[in-house]
Specification:
This protein has eight helices and 27 strands. Strand 23 and strand 24 form a beta hairpin. The protein has four domains: 45-82, no CATH class; 89-111 and 329-411, Beta Barrel (conserved putative lor/sdh protein from methanococcus maripaludis s2 fold), CATH 2.40.420; 115-126 and 246-325, Elongation Factor Tu (Ef-tu), domain 3, CATH 2.40.30.170; 136-237, RNA polymerase II/Efflux pump adaptor protein, barrel-sandwich hybrid domain (OB fold (Dihydrolipoamide Acetyltransferase, E2P)). The chain has helices at residues 2-38, 83-86, 95-101, 165-179, 183-192, 197-201, 257-260, 388-411, and strands at 49-53, 61-62, 75-78, 91-92, 104-107, 109-111, 114-125, 130-134, 139-144, 152-153, 158-163, 212-216, 221-226, 233-234, 239-244, 248-256, 268-273, 280-293, 298-306, 317-325, 330-334, 338-340, 345-352, 355-360, 362-367, 370-375, 382-386. It is 26% helix and 38% strand.
Protein backbone atom coordinates (compact mmCIF):
# COMPACT_ATOMS: atom_id res chain seq x y z
CA UNK A 1 0.00 0.00 0.00
CA UNK A 2 2.82 2.34 0.87
CA UNK A 3 4.49 1.43 -2.43
CA UNK A 4 1.32 2.17 -4.37
CA UNK A 5 1.01 5.61 -2.78
CA UNK A 6 4.52 6.47 -3.78
CA UNK A 7 3.82 5.45 -7.42
CA UNK A 8 0.71 7.67 -7.55
CA UNK A 9 2.69 10.62 -6.14
CA UNK A 10 5.41 10.21 -8.77
CA UNK A 11 2.87 10.08 -11.62
CA UNK A 12 1.19 13.22 -10.31
CA UNK A 13 4.48 15.09 -10.23
CA UNK A 14 5.28 13.97 -13.80
CA UNK A 15 1.90 15.20 -15.00
CA UNK A 16 2.33 18.57 -13.29
CA UNK A 17 5.82 19.05 -14.72
CA UNK A 18 4.60 18.15 -18.24
CA UNK A 19 1.84 20.69 -18.06
CA UNK A 20 4.25 23.31 -16.87
CA UNK A 21 6.60 22.51 -19.73
CA UNK A 22 3.78 22.89 -22.19
CA UNK A 23 2.79 26.24 -20.73
CA UNK A 24 6.39 27.37 -20.86
CA UNK A 25 6.57 26.29 -24.48
CA UNK A 26 3.43 28.17 -25.38
CA UNK A 27 4.73 31.26 -23.64
CA UNK A 28 8.19 31.04 -25.31
CA UNK A 29 6.88 30.92 -28.87
CA UNK A 30 5.35 34.45 -28.91
CA UNK A 31 8.53 35.82 -27.40
CA UNK A 32 10.52 34.30 -30.27
CA UNK A 33 8.20 35.87 -32.86
CA UNK A 34 8.50 39.23 -31.16
CA UNK A 35 12.29 39.10 -31.36
CA UNK A 36 12.17 38.24 -35.06
CA UNK A 37 9.85 41.13 -35.78
CA UNK A 38 12.03 43.59 -33.89
CA UNK A 39 15.12 42.63 -35.90
CA UNK A 40 14.06 45.25 -38.49
CA UNK A 41 14.61 48.03 -35.97
CA UNK A 42 18.18 49.36 -36.16
CA UNK A 43 20.31 49.52 -33.07
CA UNK A 44 20.53 52.87 -31.31
CA UNK A 45 23.47 54.82 -32.76
CA UNK A 46 22.65 58.34 -31.63
CA UNK A 47 22.15 59.43 -35.27
CA UNK A 48 18.83 60.75 -36.59
CA UNK A 49 17.21 58.62 -39.29
CA UNK A 50 15.75 60.47 -42.28
CA UNK A 51 13.97 57.47 -43.81
CA UNK A 52 14.51 53.86 -44.86
CA UNK A 53 15.23 52.94 -48.47
CA UNK A 54 14.84 49.71 -50.38
CA UNK A 55 17.97 47.49 -50.09
CA UNK A 56 18.01 46.79 -53.85
CA UNK A 57 17.82 50.45 -54.85
CA UNK A 58 14.15 50.41 -55.90
CA UNK A 59 12.30 53.77 -55.72
CA UNK A 60 10.50 52.84 -52.47
CA UNK A 61 11.13 54.46 -49.09
CA UNK A 62 9.52 54.14 -45.65
CA UNK A 63 9.48 56.44 -42.62
CA UNK A 64 9.62 53.37 -40.32
CA UNK A 65 11.64 50.14 -40.42
CA UNK A 66 10.18 47.46 -42.67
CA UNK A 67 11.04 44.49 -44.87
CA UNK A 68 10.41 43.89 -48.54
CA UNK A 69 8.55 40.91 -49.96
CA UNK A 70 11.71 38.80 -49.82
CA UNK A 71 12.28 39.49 -46.15
CA UNK A 72 15.21 41.89 -46.66
CA UNK A 73 15.49 44.79 -44.19
CA UNK A 74 15.20 48.34 -45.54
CA UNK A 75 18.40 50.36 -45.07
CA UNK A 76 18.42 53.40 -42.78
CA UNK A 77 19.42 56.75 -44.28
CA UNK A 78 20.67 59.20 -41.67
CA UNK A 79 20.48 62.99 -41.59
CA UNK A 80 24.28 63.38 -41.63
CA UNK A 81 24.62 61.29 -44.82
CA UNK A 82 24.74 62.89 -48.26
CA UNK A 83 22.39 62.59 -51.20
CA UNK A 84 24.37 59.63 -52.56
CA UNK A 85 23.40 57.61 -49.48
CA UNK A 86 19.72 58.53 -49.87
CA UNK A 87 19.74 57.53 -53.53
CA UNK A 88 22.05 54.60 -54.30
CA UNK A 89 22.00 55.42 -57.99
CA UNK A 90 23.96 58.64 -57.41
CA UNK A 91 27.73 58.24 -57.58
CA UNK A 92 30.14 60.52 -55.74
CA UNK A 93 33.44 60.93 -57.56
CA UNK A 94 36.34 62.96 -56.23
CA UNK A 95 37.65 65.93 -58.18
CA UNK A 96 41.06 64.27 -58.53
CA UNK A 97 39.54 61.17 -60.08
CA UNK A 98 37.44 63.27 -62.46
CA UNK A 99 40.52 65.13 -63.63
CA UNK A 100 42.59 61.97 -64.06
CA UNK A 101 39.84 60.26 -66.05
CA UNK A 102 39.41 63.28 -68.32
CA UNK A 103 35.64 63.52 -67.81
CA UNK A 104 33.92 65.83 -70.33
CA UNK A 105 30.29 66.96 -70.28
CA UNK A 106 27.86 68.52 -72.73
CA UNK A 107 24.29 69.76 -72.40
CA UNK A 108 21.32 67.90 -73.86
CA UNK A 109 20.00 70.30 -76.50
CA UNK A 110 17.41 70.49 -79.22
CA UNK A 111 18.96 70.36 -82.66
CA UNK A 112 18.10 69.31 -86.17
CA UNK A 113 19.70 65.95 -86.72
CA UNK A 114 21.30 64.95 -89.98
CA UNK A 115 21.00 61.36 -91.15
CA UNK A 116 23.66 60.01 -93.47
CA UNK A 117 22.48 58.75 -96.85
CA UNK A 118 25.03 56.62 -98.64
CA UNK A 119 25.02 56.31 -102.41
CA UNK A 120 27.41 55.37 -105.21
CA UNK A 121 28.44 58.02 -107.71
CA UNK A 122 30.74 58.92 -110.58
CA UNK A 123 32.81 61.95 -111.47
CA UNK A 124 31.39 63.82 -114.46
CA UNK A 125 32.49 66.86 -116.41
CA UNK A 126 30.80 70.15 -115.65
CA UNK A 127 28.52 70.58 -118.65
CA UNK A 128 28.76 74.36 -118.35
CA UNK A 129 32.53 74.24 -118.73
CA UNK A 130 32.80 72.36 -122.00
CA UNK A 131 33.75 74.07 -125.27
CA UNK A 132 33.55 73.02 -128.89
CA UNK A 133 35.96 74.31 -131.54
CA UNK A 134 33.79 74.21 -134.65
CA UNK A 135 34.59 75.83 -138.01
CA UNK A 136 32.18 78.28 -139.65
CA UNK A 137 34.14 78.51 -142.87
CA UNK A 138 35.86 76.16 -145.25
CA UNK A 139 39.59 75.82 -144.75
CA UNK A 140 42.70 73.63 -144.69
CA UNK A 141 44.74 72.58 -141.64
CA UNK A 142 48.38 73.57 -142.03
CA UNK A 143 49.66 72.69 -138.55
CA UNK A 144 48.39 70.87 -135.44
CA UNK A 145 49.82 71.96 -132.08
CA UNK A 146 47.46 70.14 -129.67
CA UNK A 147 47.83 66.70 -131.09
CA UNK A 148 46.65 64.25 -128.41
CA UNK A 149 43.43 63.59 -126.56
CA UNK A 150 43.81 64.32 -122.84
CA UNK A 151 46.43 67.00 -123.39
CA UNK A 152 46.16 70.01 -121.11
CA UNK A 153 46.12 73.42 -122.76
CA UNK A 154 46.14 76.98 -121.49
CA UNK A 155 43.85 79.79 -122.55
CA UNK A 156 45.40 81.54 -125.58
CA UNK A 157 47.67 78.60 -126.42
CA UNK A 158 47.45 77.77 -130.20
CA UNK A 159 45.65 74.56 -131.08
CA UNK A 160 46.15 74.48 -134.87
CA UNK A 161 46.94 76.66 -137.88
CA UNK A 162 44.36 77.05 -140.66
CA UNK A 163 44.16 78.66 -144.06
CA UNK A 164 40.65 79.73 -145.05
CA UNK A 165 39.85 81.68 -148.24
CA UNK A 166 36.66 82.99 -146.63
CA UNK A 167 38.56 84.40 -143.68
CA UNK A 168 41.17 86.00 -145.97
CA UNK A 169 38.40 87.68 -147.94
CA UNK A 170 36.83 88.91 -144.68
CA UNK A 171 40.17 90.51 -143.77
CA UNK A 172 40.23 92.40 -147.07
CA UNK A 173 36.69 93.62 -146.48
CA UNK A 174 37.69 94.68 -142.99
CA UNK A 175 40.54 96.81 -144.33
CA UNK A 176 38.30 98.48 -146.85
CA UNK A 177 35.61 99.16 -144.24
CA UNK A 178 38.18 100.51 -141.78
CA UNK A 179 39.65 102.87 -144.40
CA UNK A 180 36.17 104.25 -144.99
CA UNK A 181 35.52 104.73 -141.29
CA UNK A 182 33.20 101.73 -141.08
CA UNK A 183 35.40 99.43 -139.08
CA UNK A 184 32.54 97.83 -137.12
CA UNK A 185 30.98 96.47 -140.30
CA UNK A 186 34.23 94.65 -141.20
CA UNK A 187 34.69 93.35 -137.65
CA UNK A 188 31.16 91.93 -137.63
CA UNK A 189 31.89 89.80 -140.71
CA UNK A 190 35.05 88.34 -139.11
CA UNK A 191 33.13 87.58 -135.91
CA UNK A 192 30.41 85.85 -137.88
CA UNK A 193 33.07 83.47 -139.21
CA UNK A 194 34.14 82.69 -135.63
CA UNK A 195 37.53 84.38 -135.92
CA UNK A 196 39.03 84.83 -132.40
CA UNK A 197 39.04 88.34 -130.94
CA UNK A 198 42.79 88.14 -130.29
CA UNK A 199 43.39 87.73 -134.07
CA UNK A 200 40.99 90.55 -135.00
CA UNK A 201 42.56 93.04 -132.59
CA UNK A 202 46.04 92.41 -134.08
CA UNK A 203 45.08 92.72 -137.76
CA UNK A 204 47.29 95.31 -139.49
CA UNK A 205 45.43 98.15 -141.21
CA UNK A 206 48.16 98.45 -143.80
CA UNK A 207 50.76 96.25 -145.36
CA UNK A 208 50.67 92.53 -145.96
CA UNK A 209 47.86 90.67 -144.31
CA UNK A 210 48.26 87.15 -142.88
CA UNK A 211 46.89 84.34 -145.04
CA UNK A 212 46.56 81.84 -142.20
CA UNK A 213 45.99 82.13 -138.49
CA UNK A 214 46.85 80.20 -135.31
CA UNK A 215 43.61 79.27 -133.61
CA UNK A 216 43.94 79.81 -129.80
CA UNK A 217 42.29 77.82 -127.01
CA UNK A 218 39.44 79.82 -125.46
CA UNK A 219 40.00 78.40 -121.92
CA UNK A 220 42.30 76.39 -119.70
CA UNK A 221 41.23 72.82 -120.16
CA UNK A 222 41.79 69.30 -121.35
CA UNK A 223 41.28 67.97 -124.88
CA UNK A 224 38.42 65.53 -124.59
CA UNK A 225 38.17 64.87 -128.34
CA UNK A 226 40.43 65.67 -131.31
CA UNK A 227 39.16 65.37 -134.90
CA UNK A 228 41.87 67.16 -136.87
CA UNK A 229 45.09 66.21 -138.65
CA UNK A 230 47.58 68.14 -140.75
CA UNK A 231 46.40 68.71 -144.34
CA UNK A 232 42.77 68.05 -143.52
CA UNK A 233 40.07 69.97 -145.33
CA UNK A 234 37.45 71.23 -142.93
CA UNK A 235 33.96 72.41 -143.76
CA UNK A 236 31.51 74.66 -141.92
CA UNK A 237 30.03 72.74 -138.97
CA UNK A 238 32.99 70.39 -138.47
CA UNK A 239 33.99 70.03 -134.81
CA UNK A 240 37.78 69.96 -134.59
CA UNK A 241 38.21 69.85 -130.80
CA UNK A 242 36.12 69.52 -127.65
CA UNK A 243 37.70 71.01 -124.52
CA UNK A 244 36.66 70.73 -120.91
CA UNK A 245 37.59 72.94 -117.99
CA UNK A 246 38.20 70.41 -115.21
CA UNK A 247 39.00 72.91 -112.44
CA UNK A 248 35.47 72.16 -111.24
CA UNK A 249 33.73 68.81 -111.71
CA UNK A 250 30.40 67.22 -110.90
CA UNK A 251 29.78 64.09 -108.87
CA UNK A 252 26.52 62.42 -109.87
CA UNK A 253 25.18 60.27 -107.02
CA UNK A 254 22.50 57.63 -107.60
CA UNK A 255 20.18 57.97 -104.58
CA UNK A 256 17.46 55.35 -103.94
CA UNK A 257 13.92 56.52 -104.53
CA UNK A 258 12.89 56.22 -100.85
CA UNK A 259 15.66 58.60 -99.73
CA UNK A 260 15.29 61.35 -102.33
CA UNK A 261 12.54 63.18 -100.44
CA UNK A 262 14.86 63.90 -97.48
CA UNK A 263 17.59 65.57 -99.54
CA UNK A 264 17.68 69.33 -99.97
CA UNK A 265 19.88 71.66 -101.98
CA UNK A 266 22.94 72.79 -99.96
CA UNK A 267 22.97 69.64 -97.79
CA UNK A 268 26.63 68.94 -96.89
CA UNK A 269 28.28 66.02 -98.67
CA UNK A 270 31.50 64.07 -98.09
CA UNK A 271 32.93 62.04 -100.96
CA UNK A 272 35.53 59.29 -101.00
CA UNK A 273 37.10 58.28 -104.29
CA UNK A 274 38.07 54.65 -104.67
CA UNK A 275 41.12 55.58 -106.75
CA UNK A 276 42.35 57.96 -104.01
CA UNK A 277 42.12 56.05 -100.71
CA UNK A 278 42.46 58.12 -97.58
CA UNK A 279 41.30 61.36 -99.19
CA UNK A 280 37.91 62.93 -98.52
CA UNK A 281 36.38 65.65 -100.69
CA UNK A 282 33.64 67.92 -99.33
CA UNK A 283 30.92 69.78 -101.17
CA UNK A 284 27.20 70.54 -101.19
CA UNK A 285 24.18 69.29 -103.08
CA UNK A 286 23.67 71.72 -105.97
CA UNK A 287 20.80 70.09 -107.87
CA UNK A 288 18.41 67.14 -107.78
CA UNK A 289 17.44 65.93 -111.24
CA UNK A 290 13.62 65.70 -111.54
CA UNK A 291 13.66 62.23 -113.06
CA UNK A 292 14.14 58.66 -111.87
CA UNK A 293 16.07 56.00 -113.69
CA UNK A 294 13.45 53.38 -114.47
CA UNK A 295 15.97 50.52 -114.42
CA UNK A 296 17.33 51.20 -110.92
CA UNK A 297 14.63 53.44 -109.39
CA UNK A 298 17.26 55.95 -108.36
CA UNK A 299 17.47 59.71 -108.74
CA UNK A 300 20.62 61.57 -109.66
CA UNK A 301 21.89 64.15 -107.21
CA UNK A 302 24.52 66.59 -108.42
CA UNK A 303 27.40 67.76 -106.24
CA UNK A 304 29.89 70.37 -107.45
CA UNK A 305 33.50 69.91 -106.36
CA UNK A 306 36.53 72.11 -106.91
CA UNK A 307 39.32 70.22 -108.66
CA UNK A 308 42.34 72.55 -108.76
CA UNK A 309 44.90 69.71 -108.83
CA UNK A 310 42.96 67.76 -111.47
CA UNK A 311 42.96 64.70 -109.21
CA UNK A 312 39.35 63.90 -109.98
CA UNK A 313 39.12 62.29 -113.39
CA UNK A 314 36.07 61.85 -115.58
CA UNK A 315 34.14 58.61 -114.80
CA UNK A 316 35.92 57.85 -111.51
CA UNK A 317 33.81 55.83 -109.04
CA UNK A 318 32.96 57.52 -105.74
CA UNK A 319 31.23 56.74 -102.44
CA UNK A 320 28.93 59.63 -101.52
CA UNK A 321 27.62 60.42 -98.01
CA UNK A 322 24.88 63.05 -97.84
CA UNK A 323 24.01 64.53 -94.44
CA UNK A 324 20.26 64.94 -94.91
CA UNK A 325 18.35 66.97 -92.31
CA UNK A 326 15.52 65.19 -90.47
CA UNK A 327 13.10 68.09 -90.03
CA UNK A 328 12.24 69.71 -86.69
CA UNK A 329 14.74 70.06 -83.81
CA UNK A 330 14.68 67.19 -81.31
CA UNK A 331 16.29 66.67 -77.91
CA UNK A 332 19.63 65.02 -78.56
CA UNK A 333 23.05 64.35 -77.08
CA UNK A 334 26.38 63.30 -78.57
CA UNK A 335 26.39 59.61 -79.45
CA UNK A 336 29.43 59.16 -77.18
CA UNK A 337 27.28 60.10 -74.17
CA UNK A 338 25.20 56.91 -74.46
CA UNK A 339 26.46 53.61 -73.05
CA UNK A 340 24.68 50.86 -74.97
CA UNK A 341 25.04 47.35 -73.56
CA UNK A 342 22.55 45.89 -76.01
CA UNK A 343 19.97 45.38 -73.25
CA UNK A 344 19.88 48.94 -71.92
CA UNK A 345 21.00 52.42 -72.87
CA UNK A 346 22.39 54.67 -70.14
CA UNK A 347 23.50 58.29 -70.02
CA UNK A 348 25.55 59.62 -67.07
CA UNK A 349 24.03 62.89 -65.80
CA UNK A 350 26.36 65.38 -64.10
CA UNK A 351 24.54 66.72 -61.00
CA UNK A 352 27.43 68.97 -59.99
CA UNK A 353 29.87 68.86 -57.06
CA UNK A 354 31.27 65.52 -58.18
CA UNK A 355 27.88 63.77 -58.17
CA UNK A 356 26.80 61.66 -61.15
CA UNK A 357 23.61 59.73 -61.83
CA UNK A 358 23.36 56.90 -64.38
CA UNK A 359 20.04 57.47 -66.16
CA UNK A 360 18.25 54.94 -68.35
CA UNK A 361 17.28 56.57 -71.65
CA UNK A 362 15.35 55.67 -74.75
CA UNK A 363 16.90 56.50 -78.11
CA UNK A 364 15.31 57.74 -81.29
CA UNK A 365 16.87 58.56 -84.63
CA UNK A 366 20.57 59.00 -85.17
CA UNK A 367 22.08 61.77 -87.22
CA UNK A 368 25.77 62.40 -87.70
CA UNK A 369 27.48 62.42 -84.29
CA UNK A 370 24.29 62.90 -82.27
CA UNK A 371 21.37 60.72 -81.23
CA UNK A 372 17.79 61.67 -80.31
CA UNK A 373 16.65 61.12 -76.70
CA UNK A 374 12.94 60.31 -76.47
CA UNK A 375 12.84 59.54 -72.73
CA UNK A 376 15.09 59.88 -69.69
CA UNK A 377 16.63 63.36 -70.07
CA UNK A 378 15.51 66.97 -69.97
CA UNK A 379 16.77 69.84 -72.05
CA UNK A 380 19.77 71.52 -70.45
CA UNK A 381 20.88 68.56 -68.32
CA UNK A 382 24.61 67.93 -68.51
CA UNK A 383 25.67 64.49 -69.68
CA UNK A 384 29.12 62.94 -69.60
CA UNK A 385 30.55 62.46 -73.09
CA UNK A 386 34.02 61.20 -72.20
CA UNK A 387 35.13 58.62 -69.58
CA UNK A 388 31.45 57.89 -68.86
CA UNK A 389 32.12 54.15 -68.83
CA UNK A 390 34.29 54.60 -65.71
CA UNK A 391 31.44 56.26 -63.80
CA UNK A 392 29.04 53.58 -65.02
CA UNK A 393 31.43 50.90 -63.75
CA UNK A 394 31.50 52.55 -60.32
CA UNK A 395 27.69 52.69 -60.33
CA UNK A 396 27.43 48.98 -61.12
CA UNK A 397 29.99 48.16 -58.41
CA UNK A 398 28.14 50.22 -55.82
CA UNK A 399 24.82 48.56 -56.69
CA UNK A 400 26.39 45.12 -56.45
CA UNK A 401 27.97 45.84 -53.07
CA UNK A 402 24.72 47.29 -51.71
CA UNK A 403 22.78 44.22 -52.81
CA UNK A 404 25.42 41.89 -51.34
CA UNK A 405 25.48 43.73 -48.00
CA UNK A 406 21.70 43.73 -47.75
CA UNK A 407 21.55 40.03 -48.59
CA UNK A 408 24.12 39.18 -45.88
CA UNK A 409 22.23 41.22 -43.28
CA UNK A 410 19.01 39.46 -44.16
CA UNK A 411 20.66 36.05 -43.77
CA UNK A 412 22.01 37.00 -40.33
Amino acid sequence: MRVFSRIVLILALIAVSGAGGYLAATRFKPATIQIAEESAVPAETGRKVRFYRHPMGLPDTSPVPKRDSMGMDYIAVYEDEGEAAADPSIIKVSVEKVQRAGVRTEAAERRVLAEAIHAPGTVQLDERRQYSITMRAEGFIEEVYAGATGQKVKAGEPLFRIYSPAIVQAQVDYRIAASQGQREGGVRKLRNLGVPESFISNLPKKGQQPLSLDWPSPVDGVLMTKNVVVGQRVMPGDELYRLADVSTVWVMADVPEQDVGRIRVDDPVSIEVRALPGETFRGKVSFILPELKTETRTAQVRIELPNPDHKLIHQMYTDVTIEAALGKPVLSVPASAVIDSGLRQVAIVDLGKGRYEPRAVKLGRRGGEHVEITEGLKEGEMVVTKANFLIDAESNLKAALTALTSSNEAQQ
